[in-house]
Specification:
- The complex is a heterodimer of chains A (about 325) and B (about 300).
- With about 325 residues, chain A is mostly helical.
- Chain A is about 75% helix and about 0% strand.
- With about 300 residues, chain B is mostly helical.
- In chain B, a hairpin with a 2-residue loop joins strand 1 and strand 2.
- Classes of the chains: A mainly alpha (about 325), B mainly alpha (about 300).
- Chains A and B meet through helix 3, helix 4, helix 10 and helix 12 of A and helix 3, helix 4, helix 9 and helix 11 of B.
Chain lengths: ~325, ~300
C-alpha cells in the first residue's frame, strides 16, 4: 500500500487530474468550433482571485474556489461579447492577446504582488489534514499516515470535480444546448439560419470554458502553495491546447486522455524531460499533418464499438 | 524630448513593421497566421550574433547571413508543417496549431543550443557614434535600422508591384486555384513567399538584437506577438497597413514608456489588438469584404 500511495505518485495523479480539468475547459469552447487561447489567462484570474480571497481576506477554500471561477467567467463574458463576433483565427489571436494583457496587469498590480507572486497559500492537503486532526485522527487511518490520507482526499475531491464535469458535458451534449453547440461547430451560417442564436451559445461555451479554467486555477493555487505570473504564461496555453490536439476535441474523453498522456509521458521519460516542450511542438506538427482530429474521434469510438460488439456476439 | 522620442519610436516601429511584413506576406498568400515567425526572427538574431562574434564578419554580411538562415528555416517549415496540411481539407485552425508547434519546437531548440542567458553583440559590431540633428540625438545603430528597414520595405513594395515574380505572388494571393489554372507553379510561389517572409524576419532579428543589444531565446515570443498585433491593427494581408501599423505601435510604445506607465509597455500592443478587434475587426487599412488576399 505504501508503495502505491507514496507522495510522488499521488502528486502526479493530482497533476493529471488538474490538467484533465483544464482539458475539459478547452474542450468546452472547441465544442462550438471556437479556438480560445485565453484559457491560461482565465486560469490565472481564477487562481489569483481565489488566492487573494483565502490569504488576504480569510475566506474558506470551498467558497473561494467557486468565486474564482465565477470571476473568470464574468470577465470572459465582458470580453466575449465583442470578441465572439470574431471567428476562427481572429478569436484565437484576440484571446491570446487577452491572456498577455492579464499577465502584464497581474505583473503590475500591488494586490497580486507583481513578479514575486503570492506565496503561503494554504494547500488543500493541509486544510484537510487539519480537519482530520481535529477529529482526533492525527495518527492516520488504517495504516495510512495522516499526510497520505489528506493527499488521498485531495485526489478524491479532484476526481469528483472531473467526474461531475464529464457527467455535465455528456448530459449537456444530448440537450438543446449541446445540439446547438454541435450545429454551430458544423456550420455556423447554417445554424444561424436554423434559428439558433449563435452569439448566445458561443458566449455560453466561452463563459463555461472560462468558469472551468478559473476553477482549475483556484484548485491549482491551493495545490501548490505558491502562484506567480509565470505560471500562467503563453506556455501554459500551449500546453492546454496540446491536450486537445493530441487527444482530439470531438469527444470529452479526448482532451482528458490527452492530458493523461502528456502529464505521464514526461514523468516516465525522466531523461527526456528537458526535451518535453520540443516534443510537444513536434507532436503538434505531426498531429496536424497526420491526424488533425486527434487520437480519439467519433469514428474511433464507433470503430471500436463495432469491433468489440462483434466479439461479444460470438 | 518629443522629437527625440518620436525618432526612438520610429526606430522601434520600423523593426515591428519588418516583422509584421513577414506575417502579412504569408497571411496574404496562404491566409494563415504563421505563429512561428517570432522564433524564426530569434534564430536570425542568433545567427547574426554568431557570425559577428565568432567569424568576425562585417555586420552587414551578418545580416545577409541571418536572412539566408531565416529563409532556410522558413522553407523547412513550409515543407514540414504547412504543405502536408494543404493536401487535405482541414479546418483553418490546423495551420495555426501546426505553426504554434513549430514555434514551441524552435524556441526550445534555441534554449538547448544557445542557453537561456541573454547575449550581446560585441561592442565593435557597429560604432557607437551619435549625431546631433537639431533637437534630436540619433545613433549610428538607429540610422542603420531605419535605413535598412525602410529600404527593404520599399524594395519589397516595388518588387511585388513591378516584377513578374511579384505579379505571380499577387495572383496566388488572390486565388490559389486560379493561379494554378493560369500556369503559375503555386507551390513554388508559396515556398518563395514563406522563405522571403522568414528572411525578412531573420534580418529584423539582427536589427532588434543590435538596438536592444540583447539576444535571447525568448525574444521571439514577445516580438512575434507584437508583429501579430501589427498584423491585426493594419489589416490582415495588407502591406501598407503592416508598415504604418508597425510605426504607430512603435511610437505608441515609446511614448507610453516616456510619459509614465513604463511597466505596461508590453500591454500596449494587446490593448491595441483588443480595441481594434472590437471597433474595426478588419484592421485600419483592411477592407470589410474579404480577409487578406490582396497586397
Amino acid at each position: 500500500m505504501d508503495i502505491i500511495l507514496n507522495q510522488y505518485y499521488l502528486q502526479i495523479a493530482i497533476f493529471v487530474l488538474l490538467n484533465a480539468i483544464l482539458g475539459v475547459s478547452i474542450y468546452m469552447t472547441l465544442s462550438t468550433g471556437q479556438l480560445s487561447l485565453g484559457n491560461a489567462g482565465f486560469m490565472s484570474i481564477g487562481a489569483y482571485t481565489c488566492a487573494i480571497l483565502t490569504v488576504k481576506a480569510g475566506f474558506p477554500v470551498y467558497l473561494a474556489i467557486p468565486i474564482g471561477g465565477i470571476a473568470a467567467s464574468f470577465i470572459s463574458i465582458i470580453i466575449g461579447f465583442p470578441a465572439l463576433r470574431l471567428t476562427g483565427i481572429y478569436l484565437a489571436i484576440a484571446t491570446l492577446g487577452f491572456g498577455e494583457v492579464v499577465r502584464v496587469v497581474i505583473l503590475n498590480l500591488k494586490i497580486t504582488n507583481g513578479a514575486l507572486g503570492i506565496s503561503g497559500i494554504p494547500t488543500l492537503a493541509a486544510k484537510i489534514g487539519k480537519v482530520f486532526s481535529s477529529l482526533g485522527l492525527s495518527n492516520g487511518i488504517g495504516g495510512l499516515s495522516a499526510q497520505q490520507v489528506s493527499n488521498l482526499m485531495v485526489l478524491v475531491v479532484l476526481i469528483l470535480v472531473l467526474a461531475f464535469l464529464v457527467f455535465f458535458c455528456t448530459r449537456m451534449n444530448r440537450s438543446r444546448v449541446g445540439r446547438a453547440f454541435a450545429a454551430i461547430k458544423a456550420d455556423e451560417a447554417a445554424a444561424e439560419a436554423m434559428g439558433i442564436n449563435t452569439t448566445f451559445y458561443k458566449l455560453l461555451a466561452f463563459a463555461l470554458g472560462a468558469l472551468i479554467a478559473g476553477i482549475a486555477g483556484g484548485l491549482s493555487a491551493h495545490l501548490t502553495f505558491f502562484i506567480g505570473p509565470k505560471d500562467f504564461a503563453y506556455n501554459r496555453t500551449v500546453e492546454i491546447l496540446t491536450f486537445a490536439v493530441l487527444g482530439g476535441s470531438d469527444l470529452i474523453i479526448g482532451p482528458i486522455v490527452g492530458a493523461l498522456l502528456l502529464t505521464l509521458l514526461p514523468e516516465l521519460l525522466r531523461s527526456a524531460s528537458e526535451y518535453r516542450l520540443m516534443i510537444y511542438g513536434a507532436l503538434m506538427v505531426a498531429m496536424m499533418a497526420f491526424r488533425p482530429q486527434g487520437l480519439i474521434s467519433e469514428e474511433t469510438v464507433r470503430f471500436w464499438k463495432g469491433k468489440l460488439g462483434r466479439r461479444v456476439k460470438q | 524630448m518629443f522629437w527625440q522620442q518620436l525618432v526612438n519610436g520610429l526606430t522601434l516601429g520600423s523593426t515591428y513593421s519588418l516583422v509584421a511584413l513577414g506575417y502579412t506576406l504569408i497571411m496574404g498568400v496562404l491566409n494563415i497566421i504563421n505563429m512561428a515567425h517570432g522564433e524564426i526572427f530569434m534564430f536570425g538574431a542568433f545567427v547574426g550574433l554568431f557570425l559577428v562574434t565568432y567569424l568576425k564578419v562585417n555586420i552587414f554580411v551578418a545580416m545577409a547571413g541571418a536572412m539566408v538562415a531565416g529563409a532556410l528555416l522558413g522553407t523547412l517549415m513550409e515543407i514540414v508543417a504547412l504543405r502536408p496540411l494543404r493536401r487535405r481539407a482541414v479546418s483553418e485552425l490546423a495551420p495555426l496549431i501546426s505553426t504554434i508547434g513549430v514555434s514551441i519546437f524552435l524556441e526550445n531548440l534555441a534554449l538547448k543550443i544557445f542557453g537561456p542567458q541573454s547575449q550581446a553583440f560585441p561592442s565593435g559590431a557597429l560604432s557607437g557614434a551619435e549625431m546631433q540633428l537639431g533637437p534630436v540625438r540619433i545613433s549610428l545603430v538607429q540610422i542603420v535600422i531605419l535605413g535598412i528597414s525602410f529600404g527593404l520595405m520599399f524594395i519589397l513594395r516595388f518588387w511585388l508591384s513591378k516584377t513578374r515574380v511579384g505579379k505571380a505572388i499577387r495572383t496566388t494571393a488572390e486565388s490559389i486555384e486560379t493561379a494554378n489554372l493560369l500556369g503559375i507553379n503555386t507551390n513554388k510561389i508559396i515556398l518563395l513567399t514563406v522563405a522571403l517572409a522568414s528572411g525578412l524576419g531573420g534580418i529584423a532579428g539582427v536589427l532588434v538584437g543590435l538596438s536592444i543589444n540583447a539576444v535571447e531565446p525568448t525574444m521571439g515570443l514577445s516580438m512575434g506577438l507584437k508583429g501579430l498585433a501589427v498584423l491585426i491593427f493594419g489589416g490582415m494581408g495588407n502591406i501598407t497597413g503592416a508598415m504604418l501599423g508597425g510605426l504607430i505601435l512603435g511610437i505608441a510604445e515609446v511614448f507610453t514608456v516616456a510619459y509614465g506607465a513604463s511597466s505596461y509597455r508590453d500591454a500596449v500592443a494587446f490593448g491595441i489588438i483588443i480595441l481594434i478587434l472590437f471597433i474595426r475587426p478588419q484592421g485600419i487599412f483592411g477592407s470589410s469584404t474579404r480577409q487578406g488576399g490582396r497586397f
